[in-house]
Design a protein that fits this description.
This protein is mostly helical. It has one domain. The protein has five helices and no strands. Helix 3 runs antiparallel to helix 5 and helix 4 runs antiparallel to helix 5.
């Protein structure tokens, strides 16, 4: 579940964040998934970066994805 929520965090804009928060409030996803999504959020700044230099955006996304997944799965291992 945290990996799927982390992938949702890559989508720019606030729509996926609002959907994931609504799912968390309805107990459809775990807190670890919500935290993984929130930490991997690239935000709207990624869209202009893709237009200017697409090769650096993959690295930026990877740099935000790895800590987000480590934190989400670490919290899962701790029993959150």
């Amino acid at each position: 579940m945290p990996a799927m929520a982390g992938a949702v965090g890559f989508v720019p804009g606030c729509g996926p964040t609002m959907v994931a928060t609504a799912l968390y409030l309805d107990w459809a996803i775990l807190l670890t998934a919500q935290l993984g999504k929130a930490s991997s959020k690239d935000g709207d700044a990624l869209s202009p970066a893709i237009a200017r230099a697409s090769n650096g955006t993959g690295l930026a996304t990877l740099c935000s994805a790895i800590p987000a997944l480590l934190a989400a799965y670490g919290l899962c291992a701790l029993g959150w």
